[in-house]
């Protein structure tokens, strides 16, 4: 999925960006794609030329100042940030409503994994003291955007008139969103990247064309990267819900009931195993809920959290990887040949697992990914080798 990997590195509104024009697969209302120059000083045109060549797309490289004048275009829609719920340490779930009206063609529903631009007035009152400084880059962007802060975020879940985004507070913009009072007006727009389910469906189709199948989906997330995985799992599980489920389930599984209206009902997904990687227990998002899902849909869903401060990183030992990735219900061959992997979160985890899985023999078609930050984290060779080795154990 080359397309995915380009989108994975897409971050809007960067001062040091490169523009990729005429990207035919973008929705019609997006005329330019802004691609952050991840490689900053290390990068140069060569890297971009190579990527453009691989993808067979035309590439225009512009200087940062020119670029600034033409940030990526998307129609903005008005919405309301109804609530921001703290779900874990520094992690907040934003619930945004945007009733479709007759003037604007609504772009909802989104799907888990879509990346959008979210905007909030810079002078939004937040209780307490915002501990983060407003950077030069943000100040400059504010001038170009009528005093609205903006940043890209990934959709956790959506209905036809609302969407949720799980964010981590890491700076001025995320702090302002997380601490905004109830019912704060916001603006949003754009619809970038391949949603998680669509990537998986494509992978299942490819496997089928080649006479194989996908028997298991493994999702590995770090931190709030778990959000879109949860949304995708809800959609994939929703067709398992019986209409005559007892009413007490309504509240407990209300997201599944919401998903059911728009899910890929015709697709029967294989079992999903979600591995949420966190630093410590306080970082774990939706633990109780995920465990309830696992109990109700044991045949279709399993999840575990791995806490690096106590257990070490997943990639730190072969034993840990074979325990979590290979030995649960599938043989090693299954883990290599019939599993689809979705990797989401920090660049170091995603880059190392992508390289390691491929080195072990997992086809590119069966890996989808999204990097949240640290895109250029260089995969450590010994970790890549360890992942490959764990996957190839007899
Ligand atoms: C949309 O248009 C219909 C028919 O003109 C009208 O009945 C309805 O109230 C409008 N809805 C909104 C949200 O404006
Ligand atoms: C990336 O995620 C791994 C796994 O959770 C974690 O151990 C590591 O510290 C993270 N790196 C950064 C830069 O956050």
Automatic annotation (TrEMBL):
Lineage: Eukaryota, Sar, Stramenopiles, Ochrophyta, Bacillariophyta
Organism, scientific name: Chaetoceros tenuissimus
Any one GO MF annotation of this record: oxidoreductase activity
Name of the molecule in the record: FAD-binding FR-type domain-containing protein
Domain of life: Eukaryota
Record-linked PROSITE patterns: FAD_FR (PS51384)
Keywords: Signal
Gene3D superfamilies: Nucleotide-binding domain of ferredoxin-NADP reductase (FNR) module (3.40.50.80)
Signal peptide range in chain numbering: 1-22
Ranges of residues in domain FAD-binding FR-type: 74-198
